[in-house]
Predict the 3D structure of the following.
Amino acid sequence: MSDTGTPLEPESSSEAVPTADGAAGEQVVTGSTSPAEAGSTAPEEVGSTAPAGAEPTEPAQSEEPASLDDIAATAREFVSGLLEALSLEATVDASVEPDRAVIEVNGTDLGVLIGRRGQTLDALQEVTRTAVQRRLRSRVRLLVDVEGYRSRRRASLAEYATAMATRAKERGTEIELEPMNAYERKIVHDAVADVDGASSFSEGEEPQRKVIVRGE
């Protein structure tokens, strides 16, 4: 027996229809006990502008990988220029974590940068990553957040995953979640792992790969 589930979505300052395509969020739970609809998944890889039929190419990689400080500074410059071009007033802060650079954008009425289910934010992150990678000729690990959306999303997704694991355990069933990106799937797996009597695994191919929560 299987069920479906849908995570809570953190509120943003204002929600806008996304201006860039992204993968779908969570499936709605069948029944009256389903959480509110939400989701944020990473968009498809930004392709090259090569002619039709040509293989897309990555920029030549430098021998030495770019430092996280260089990645953060370059990403901050790119995002700041983009906001200026869009006539959006916001502050752009750059920092580094052990394994990635982080760009945080804060201001008022920036929901247009988040979009429905965070799809526009995911597109902004991918465009920024691609631009920085081409500028530095080095693969980069980068997180872009707007008004703390991702941190709120992380918390609500972990809470949702715990609830789904508890439900699966009590019912002795499997709950199938709608496709998520790898980042969100890891959040779900980590939360489910903390619930005794429940487990989770992923199945399917990107971008339709999903998490199955199983009661044991």
